[in-house]
Amino acid sequence: MSTLVKPRTLFIGLTLLCVLAIWLSLALGPVSLPLLDTLRAALRLMGVPIEASGLEQAELILGQIRLPRTLLGLAVGGVLALSGVAMQGLFRNPLADPGLVGVSSGAALGAAFAIVGGSFLGGLPEVFGPYLLSLCAFLGGLGVTALVYRLGRRNGQTHVATMLLAGIALTALASSAVGLFTYLADDATLRTLTFWNLGSLNGASYSRLWPLLLVSAGVALWLPRRAKALNALLLGESEASHLGVDVERLKRELVFCTALGVGAAVAAAGMIGFVGLVVPHLVRFLAGPDHRVLLPASVLAGASLLLLADLVARLALAPAELPIGIVTALIGAPFFLYLLLRGRA
Amino acid sequence: MRLSASAIALVVGLMLNHAAHASQLPQRWVSAGGALSEWVAALGGESKLVGVDTTSQHPASLKALPSIGYQRQLSAEGILSLRPQVLVGTEEMGPPPVLAQIRSAGVQVEMFSARPDLPTLKGNLQHLGALLGSEAKASELFTGYEQALDQQKRWVATAQATNKAPGVLMLLGNAGGKPLIAGKDTAADWVLQQAGGRNLATHSGYKPFSVESLAGLSPEVLVFADRALTGEAARAGLFKENPILASTPAAKHARVFELDPTLLVGGLGPRLPQSLVQLSADFYPSQAKPAR
What we know:
The structure holds two protein chains of two kinds.
Chain A: H1 7-27, H2 35-45, H3 56-90, H4 103-121, H5 129-151, E1 153-154, E2 157-158, H6 160-184, H7 187-196, H8 206-222, H9 227-233, H10 237-242, H11 247-269, H12 275-287, H13 291-315, H14 324-344
Antiparallel strand pairs in A: 1-2
Chain B: H1 2-18, E1 29-32, H2 34-42, E2 49-52, H3 76-80, E3 86-90, H4 96-104, E4 108-112, H5 118-132, H6 135-162, E5 167-173, E6 180-182, H7 187-194, E7 198-199, E8 206-208, H8 211-216, E9 221-226, H9 231-241, H10 249-252, E10 256-258, H11 272-283
Parallel strand pairs in B: 1-2, 1-3, 3-4, 5-7, 5-9, 9-10
Antiparallel strand pairs in B: 5-6, 6-8
């Protein structure tokens, strides 16, 4: 099968793009740092002993603000794109996105509960307070996905179509519960909720970063090992099992990885739409549907594109900041339409 | 930008001559809170402001400053790019990790309470006065504010001795669309009480209301605060979008009044006493106008 780009070229290109995106994300921001200072501060952060005088500000901005933010962007973008591939493979439908199994709406429900309920509870212990939102979002996403998966199972078999419909029903249920929390919220919490739904990499800190890095590294290492099984699944479930794939186990793994990865990403950065839907499409359009290429390439592409989108988010309105979900949807939606219309012609 | 920087340099220079300790005070301010920005300006610190948030709309000259976005969604690097020495805001300012980043960059972060009561305002003004080096002006402003509210209270008490307190509903809308009704525990409720009105809404917070129950409460006075329209246009919009309101006693007796919605954000602001005088005069039309 001929593809637009050879896998080798694709990987070289995406790696270069990713390195470029990382560099831009570290070098650019509302505070303009001289290029040389950025370089020297970066070297110092890597442990190279360089004279520190005059570098304090550069080092602080690079080490405490831009680096955690860049790492967050890489992890979130990569894991969202990867989950997108997993879901499109599982449902054998290119329109699938991670929201389909209820992980996003569950996370939104958890977040709404934390934001609105947290202000009711008021006196939360200081240590726990900042993590309540992330924890609730993560557990909400995991919980609803588990329920969707459970509803899709009958006689020891997972019916993908039933799961899809259960996902739609539970998403509707979850959003009505979010609506209830919205009704109960006061003005300030309402705005927090709205902003959370648009996602942001703002305020990334190492303490909140490492759980996500761990989860996304795990998912990014695990899923590509299942590339061949996913390729077999493209032919159909019974065909795949005839080829020796344990289809039930594969489905379980895909749903679990998605719930874990997207749950952690959403918990750390809020809802960021379109990455999980568009990035796999883009890669498939360039390099074909082979999951051995699609999975790792989507990680690179998702990470790079999210970093670039974040760059727009933080520079467009500086010193204020745009929620990144606005940027990804603004770029993602027209691009998705272009891909659709192009395919039809 | 360059002009304001040189203006600041000039001010700094002048202050250095006046008092040695003035140079220790922060000279570059970022304010994240509508009422706080107003107070900073009232205390003569407007020239020190280098950035404000989206709720800082008064005085109008603040709109020309760089906007740091919404107070609960601040960006650390964005604020640092303004090279401030101090960031002031209410306890709603956030998110907390961003504030920690700003602090670690050596910027003083000062939190103020937005609770609408006088002791809080007194503390806030003293704090701001100390930061601006204008303590005397701060206590003068507070005394004036306290007196204005006292006078207001007395006037309302006299008015209520001979008049029944009118039943009021406060509607917050956007271009006349479905309004939210201000209930208990809101800044709007506090304003209505200070102006001598009786808030008919018994729920807490700002909630949408069914038009039926709204008409059933038969308010004698309607106060509307519209975020998009002002004056006659807002009034017309309100009745056009919600025709049932026209059947209320308030509408029949043309007792529908306007309030600037920015007064309800971020605690007690300097423009509030003035608006209360106006509002209470509207509530008790037969009573002699309070002295200004």
